[in-house]
Amino acid sequence: MPELDPAPSDRVVVVTRPRAQADGLAQAVRALGRTAEVLPLLQIAPVDDPAPLRAALASLHEYALAVFVSPNAVDAAFAHLAAWPLDVPLAVVGEGSRAALARHGVAAPGHTIYSPLAPAHSDSEHLLQSLDLALFAGRRVLIVRGDGGRELLADALRATGATVEAVAAYRRSTPVLTPGLAARLRALLAQPNDWIITSSEALRGLAGLVGALGPGFQARFEQQHLIVPHARIAGTAHALGLRHVTLTGSGDARLLAALQSQ
């Protein structure tokens, strides 16, 4: 008899965020009665030379705005900060970064924090829509991010006449395919499961790891169900041959609701 796929409630939920943000989401998944496995697909490490970051943070009063592109950027910056000055506005791309700021004692109404007007859309494009860009013409703006990253936000601010300084606060890398990781991936690909993917970079890294497993695993990979918060990640998934993709909008609550709706 052909092997039957597991019922949705019996599928493993694979949480692929970096370790620092994965455990809380995994606990919330388990609270729904689901089995969660944490499999970080991006490793986060400090930059080799933190001097540029420290220099920027030491002169925060010179900036009209400081933008944090991820929770990792927040945590990396606050490793070098005792407190955030009340007179320096901040901007975040998503609710995860806003929550990270709150963990470090930075929250409204004491601090001015800009974010996308619609919480379901956490990206640079929607953050730009929430900003009065003319306010920053001729003024300095700091962007704290990982090494590399998209230039859309910096380019849009520069186009309005702002002086933008982007500093790297952390390094990202995909994990090496060790024998232990290969065994975990083979076990997870043995049946369809639910994968929470919150980064196109992480998804491309996963595809590379699957390709290194050898023949036969790509087909199993394409049968997995992905839960993603952004259309850009869904587009990456489709380009990689994945067709079982649920697009939720940003925020853990929407990711969890997608699991409950199955």
Description:
- With 262 residues, the chain is an alpha/beta fold.
- It is 39% helix and 18% strand.
- The protein contains 11 helices and 11 strands.
- Helix 3 links the parallel strand 4 and strand 5 (90-92).
- Helix 3 runs parallel beside helix 4.
- The longest helix has 14 residues, at 200-213.
- The chain is elongated and about 60 Å long.
- The protein starts with 12 loop residues before the first strand and ends with a helix.
- The model has no long low-confidence stretch (mean pLDDT 92).
Can you describe this structure in just a few lines?
With 262 residues, the protein is of the alpha/beta class. The protein has helices at residues 19-31, 51-58, 71-78, 95-103, 124-130, 152-159, 179-188, 200-213, 217-222, 231-239, 252-260; strands at residues 13-15, 36-38, 43-46, 65-68, 90-92, 113-114, 140-146, 163-173, 194-196, 225-228, 245-247. Helix content is 39%, strand content 18%.
Please give the structural blueprint:
Blueprint (H helix, E strand, L loop, with lengths): L12 E3 L3 H13 L4 E3 L4 E4 L4 H8 L6 E4 L2 H8 L11 E3 L2 H9 L9 E2 L9 H7 L9 E7 L5 H8 L3 E11 L5 H10 L5 E3 L3 H14 L3 H6 L2 E4 L2 H9 L5 E3 L4 H9 L2
Parallel strand pairs: 1-2, 1-9, 4-5, 4-7, 5-6, 7-8, 9-10, 10-11
Antiparallel strand pairs: 3-8
What's the order of the H and E elements? EHEEHEHEHEHEHEHEHHEHEH
**Largest sheet at a glance?**
6 strands, mixed
What share of residues are in beta strands?
15-25%
Distance between the termini: 26 Å
Q: Could you estimate the helical fraction of the residues in percent?
A: 25-40%
> Helix segment count?
11
Q: In total, how many beta strands?
A: 11
